[in-house]
């Protein structure tokens, strides 16, 4: 169930931020951020009341710092929306993905925020490095010396298909 929910979250995050970017074109970035987060609040409040068995402000025993995660939400929506506007969805999402995986790796490796410390392994390091290289290849493509031949071949196939 965890992988399925994570896939759904990825689909929703990417789609939401494309929509946010389009919304910001008409109303501005901060108006879009306010509308998006306000709409999210209005949607989540009734779901909370029907599903959770705790009061909204009964979060005793939680580190007060965690209550500021909503402020992170404002930064996430704004920065992601602007990144998509400036770079396009695919490149922005790929950079966000690398940064999310990297910070999650750091949190796990050092046992931050109450998570169990996980050992740093060569496989994990190689995975993050490969992900970063993949994003660079995705973005830079034919500007990388080792990609010139494959780009020329791809363009050659395209020319053949058009004739």
Automatic annotation (TrEMBL):
Residues annotated as transmembrane: 30-51, 63-84, 90-113, 125-141
Q: Which domain of life is it from?
A: Bacteria
Organism of provenance: Thalassobacillus hwangdonensis
Which InterPro entries does this UniProt record tie to the protein?
Answer: YdcZ
Q: What is this protein called?
A: DMT family transporter
What Pfam families has UniProt attached to this entry?
DMT_YdcZ
* This protein's UniProt keywords: Membrane, Transmembrane, Transmembrane helix
């Amino acid at each position: 169930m965890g992988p399925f929910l994570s896939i759904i979250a990825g689909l929703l995050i990417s789609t939401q931020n494309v929509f946010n970017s389009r919304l910001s074109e008409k109303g501005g970035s901060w108006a879009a951020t306010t509308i998006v987060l306000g709409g999210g609040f209005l949607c989540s409040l009734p779901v909370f009341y029907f599903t959770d068995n705790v009061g909204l402000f009964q979060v005793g025993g939680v580190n007060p710092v965690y209550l500021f995660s909503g402020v992170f939400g404002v930064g996430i929506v704004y920065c992601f929306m602007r990144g998509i506007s400036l770079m396009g969805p695919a490149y922005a999402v790929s950079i966000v993905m690398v940064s999310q995986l990297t910070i999650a790796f750091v949190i796990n490796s050092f046992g931050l925020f109450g998570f169990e410390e996980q050992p740093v392994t060569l496989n994990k390091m190689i995975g993050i490095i490969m992900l970063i290289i993949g994003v660079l290849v995705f973005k830079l493509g034919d500007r990388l010396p080792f990609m010139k031949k494959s780009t020329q071949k791809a363009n050659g196939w395209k020319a053949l298909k058009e004739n």
